[in-house]
Amino acid sequence: MQLPDPVPLYGPEYKRDPYPLYARLREAGPVHRVLFPSGVTAWLVTGHAAAQATLADPRLGKNHARGNDRWRARASIMPEPQHSQLQVHLLHQDPPKHTAMRRLVTDAFAPRRVAALRPRFQELADALVDALPAGPAGADLVEGFAARFPFQVLAEVIGLPPHLAARFRRDWGKVVAPVGPTDPGRPAYEALLRELQDYIAEVVADRRAHPGDGLLSRLVTARDTGELTAEELDSMVFQLLVAGQEPVTNQITTALVSLLRHPEALGRLRAEPALWPRAVEELMRLDSAFELTTWRFLAEDADLHGTRVPAGDSVIVSLCAANRDPERFPDPDTLDLDRDQGPHLGFGHGIHFCPGASLARTELQVALGTLIGRLPGLRLAVPEAELPWIPAVLGRGTSRLPVAYDARTAPTTAPARCPHSRG
């Protein structure tokens, strides 16, 4: 079949503000062929109704074995190279394997457990703010806070012991960004991948030798009892360490940029902190760090919202485009702290709905509430046009967020202590 020319989804202007392009695509129809910088093509779903239906469509599977020859021809330069041992995590599984693997992680992220740990999260956030410069010189909130807080929280929740948490390199998260086999940066990329695989092996060995009641220990036990293969265990640890923190780091930056564009909303939240749960939902809807989903595949040629899609071609959903669909959210480009049109798709939908959604929501409430509450006069220290947006294929966020503020105030309450396990 004759395929339409793909629409490029890359470049500095696109990463800075993809929403005008998403609006044009949405108005033209729900499905479009798109091109990524690695040369990978995909079918992009844009509207809210089409996105929700696609995310729940049983015809679409996530296992990479469904990909066709055209897709496989580019597989070596896609995120998480196919020859690594980190491929078979939840995002690349279909039922019944997906169901069994997801069951192993859900309890660790249950709302009741997250709520019990919230005082500890607040303690971590306050400690990071305490370490920021006290005067009006300002700081980079990515380096000083957003790149640190989600990982510290994650280590608490999954039972990553302090001596291993201290050795984790944030650069290892870059293995999810495509680097082609002829790219000059490929050797460095492969070195990062090997280092991460070695680190995961060390984590597994440590939890096997010193088991506890944390999620990592439970996953190691599942491997030892035959519920997981060795590759599945390594892949799930990889997913926890990377997908469990980097999107929250990026969401902190997109939310802060949105609030700094809307000082009236920022001031209202400082005066009415009880609004934070609703505000976090609206900030995620307005500019989600989960910009695009990972790949899905049809087992046979089929109609997808009026477009014929070949079997094994990759299908992705733009969560950002869906969350600004005017047919679902009136005046969608406006930050409205009183919006009541129902849930966004920032955490996905269907069986692959983010299992850590409750944790991410709590992290964002604590992180944003602490930064806004304790840094009066918070403002950008550079023109917004100079903010460096990450070139990631699937996510949105800034790699730096230089800010200034009038002062660094003390925590509103004494640090809260709660029992917590690092097992």
Automatic annotation (TrEMBL):
GO terms for molecular function: heme binding; iron ion binding; monooxygenase activity; oxidoreductase activity, acting on paired donors, with incorporation or reduction of molecular oxygen. The keyword Metal-binding applies. It holds the Pfam family p450. Keywords: Heme, Iron, Metal-binding, Monooxygenase, Oxidoreductase. Belongs to the cytochrome P450 family. This is Cytochrome P450 hydroxylase.
